[in-house]
Amino acid sequence: MNITELLAEADARAAKGQIPLAEAFYRQVLDQIPLHPAALFGLGRLALERADPAQAEAFLAGAVRGMPAHPAYRVYHGMALRQLDLLDQAIITFQAAIRLVPDAVQPWLGLIDCLLARQDWPQARAMIGQAQQQGVTVAPLLTVLGQGLARAGLTGEAEQAYGEAISMAPAEQPAWLARASLYLKNRQLDEALRDARQAVALDGGDARALVVLAAVLRAHQDLAGAIAAARQAVKLSPRLVDACAELGTLLHQAGEDAEGVTHLLAAHHMAPHRLDIAYNLAACFMAAEDYPQAGQLYRQCVEAKPDWRDACTNLGVALLRQGRLSEAECLLQQAVAIPEDVDAAGKPEARYNLAWVQLLQGNFRAGWQNYEARWDLPDFSSPRRPLPVPRWSGEADPALHLLLHAEQGLGDSIQMMQLVALARQRVGRVTLEVPPALYRLALSLAGVDQVVAADLSDPARLPVPCDAHAPLMSLPLLLGVGLSDLPRATAYLNAPAPTSALCLPDSPLPRVGFVWAGSPHNKIDRYRTIPWTLFAPLTAGTGCAPWSLQWAPQPPEGINSCMVAVKDMADTASVIAQLDLVVGVDTAVLHLAAAMGRPAWMLIPFAPDYRWLATGDGSPWYPSLRLFRQQRSGAWADVVAEVRHALSGWVSEWRPGRIG
Q1: 397-479 with 511-653: one CATH topology?
Q2: DSSP 618
Q3: How many Cβ atoms from other residues are within 10 Å of residue 641's Cβ?
Q4: Half-sphere exposure of residue 140, counting CA atoms within 13 Å on the CB side?
Q5: What InterPro entries does the entry give (predicted)?
């Protein structure tokens, strides 16, 4: 090919988004004519497109030197200088372009944008007047003025500038689009939707307008509509970074993380320095449990912005999920320490996750203190109770009537019931409020003067007259309990006699209860629940009589169950009391078995719940509990094989009447 053909091919490839091929053809031109202005210009434009203004400036400066009278070369060179914040040089470059083509809008746009970057509003307005005298259509200039004012936080003035542009030229699509973005930022969602739809109507082929429409629809909670708009934007402009990023983020929100990763990866490759894209891509990897990849991206965000609290917190969580607790604690401490006037959002989340790391390492003093941040989480499962009596601070007062109330899950309440007797030693009377499912079971607990079933239809209502209250999960903090201070009671809950429907038949084999799934409403259930197909080998071929402790209308084939007759946790306790061993995942049933002093084996994930500590096969909370830990995240098959081997050995040594 000759030079003309090479340039034509390069331009065609660039127009189709085939950037590497376009660059290759431009470089072939430079191989023949090293300083060819058109080739340098083409490479400069491509560098601007991939957000590399430094390289763009070098190419475009060469193009201008080779052909100083070419206005487009000067305009693009000015754009590169502007992106590098070299405002004085950019202004000189745009002024030179204006002298070449005084009636062209593009150099005026660049000049006014530079003046706005200096926040020189009067001079920017004056330039709009001069441009109008030269016959330039000023609606685009007013739009740029509005964008500069919006960046400076002058939203009223920005809205006025956009309004002027639209009044002068109702078909000025960029003004509608910019005003839609302004309204979206100000949460004026109806106005934003109106303007975004108008921008798309004026130019349905503008992918950027579709991206803004997608963002507005997302704010309107119309996820399906937002995804459709973003898909159309990507279809129109596959290399538009914002289109790929918006679609990937929307798909992540819709739970379609695999496809979301594809689009966010494309955006990240095109704009590797965009922290918002790296952050959202990391969120997709977190959802896919690819914690090393997520951590790498969050680290990029933290290194670029050390005071970005959410990025620090999420990096800490990614490290926690990899078992790198010391590093996780450092990052979470960093997140907590960021001043609120620097980053006001996310401190409760940082403290809550820090509590998990500290408690996993046995640091009860700091961990339980930070665990109190749960009350400030926006989506915490047990909102703070606005009760009309003071919260107990742990002080000793023999005249005090203390209300202890349950929170979170049944397992949490069962675990903390063992501390109620310690609280009772400090006060005159304790009333324990528990969910109805725990009411009959709690009647067997020592150290309680009265048990009431919770009725949370009015969370502010006291179930009984009292002097102070405390949530059960705050007892370790209020009592100053450390690892060595736990009661280590062999059994503190007792089962009632079973009803006839719950009496298990005699068996010459050891009776073993199994539970493999927790509540699907629990946020971390996907980490603890084991699919039945993986868990099933534990229930067959080990020489035991298997009994399901899973609440389900129909147990899987080959396993006995009477759970259809179970009405509450006291009934479950009646069944457990007849078993020789309970094996299962981290659920209330395992807590109950251990609280009754029954032998219990728990299969826990690689990054376990904070209460099981980071290492060891025993629990300081429950002497009869044995832990089987994942050695790799998600690797349940290995744990099941280990438990199956241990169960076979246990069965071979079992004798009737023996416990454990």
Answers
A1: yes
A2: B
A3: 12
A4: 12
A5: Glyco_trans_9 (IPR002201), TMTC_O-mannosyl-trnsfr (IPR052943), TPR-like_helical_dom_sf (IPR011990), TPR_rpt (IPR019734)
Closest CA to 214 of 146, 199, 402: 199
| CATH tag, 397-479 | 3.40.50
Phi-psi region of 429 (alpha: psi -120 to 50; beta: other; left: phi over 0): beta
**8 Å CB contact between 300 and 285:** no
The one-character DSSP state at 510 is P
Distance (Å, whole) CA 598 – CA 626: 11
Domain boundaries 291-376, corresponding CATH code: 1.25.40.10
- Given a contact cutoff of 8 angstroms between Cβ atoms, the answer to whether 560 and 512 are in contact is no
* Rounded distance between C-alpha atoms, residue 335 and residue 353, angstroms: 10
For residue 603, report the phi and psi dihedrals to the nearest 5 degrees.
-95, 120
Give φ, ψ of 17 to 5 degrees: 80, 10
Nearest one of 497, 489, 482, 471 to 385, comparing CA atoms:
471
User: CA nearest 622: which of 580, 575, 657, 589?
Assistant: 589
User: What is the block-wise mean pLDDT of the chain (660 residues), using blocks of 10 residues?
Assistant: 92 89 94 95 93 94 96 97 96 96 95 92 92 93 93 93 95 96 96 97 96 97 97 95 96 93 96 95 94 98 96 98 97 96 88 97 96 94 94 97 97 97 97 98 95 94 97 97 86 95 95 93 86 94 94 83 94 97 97 97 96 96 97 94 97 78
- Among the CATH numbers 2.40.128.130, 3.40.50.450, 2.40.50.580, 3.40.50.2000, which is that of 511-653? 3.40.50.450
Q: How many residues does this entry show for the chain?
A: 660
Closest CA to 90 of 108, 78, 102, 101: 78
Domain map (residue ranges) of the chain: 291-376, 397-479, 511-653
